[in-house]
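Dear H.,

Thanks for agreeing to be a second pair of eyes. The structure we're designing against is below in token form, covering all 111 positions.
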């Protein structure tokens, strides 16, 4: 199959860009708490004239990362499979890229 397909039903899907100013439709309690944390930081910064930034890290990993925590995402899934002698499962065409940031870098320390 060429191009993105649904991993459940196999139908071809078309990615749709989302405007940066679009309202957020939160689908989980986890997403809601992340949004509230960002809003809190930005509000404190604006109130007290403190320069702040809301940074959304994706796939930050380290040597003591829990492989059983569901919030460690694809890193934990890949590592668990590799530790058990299995190849990582790659869906669609495998061309999507992600940043994997080690926790020892300065960008990861901003968290």
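And this is the sequence the design step returned. I haven't edited it by hand at all.
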């Amino acid at each position: 199959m060429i191009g993105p397909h649904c991993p459940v039903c196999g139908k071809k899907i078309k990615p749709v860009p989302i405007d940066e100013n679009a309202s957020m439709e939160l689908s989980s309690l986890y997403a809601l708490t992340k949004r509230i944390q960002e809003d809190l930081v930005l509000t404190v910064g604006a109130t007290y004239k403190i320069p702040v930034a809301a940074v959304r890290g994706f796939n930050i990993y380290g040597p003591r990362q829990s492989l059983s925590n569901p919030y460690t995402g694809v890193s934990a899934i890949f590592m668990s499979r590799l530790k058990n002698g299995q190849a990582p499962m790659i869906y669609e065409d495998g061309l999507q890229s992600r940043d994997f940031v080690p926790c020892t870098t300065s960008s990861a320390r901003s968290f």
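Two observations from my side: The helical segments are 29-48, 73-83, 106-109. Strands lie at 60-61, 101-102.

Warmly,
E.
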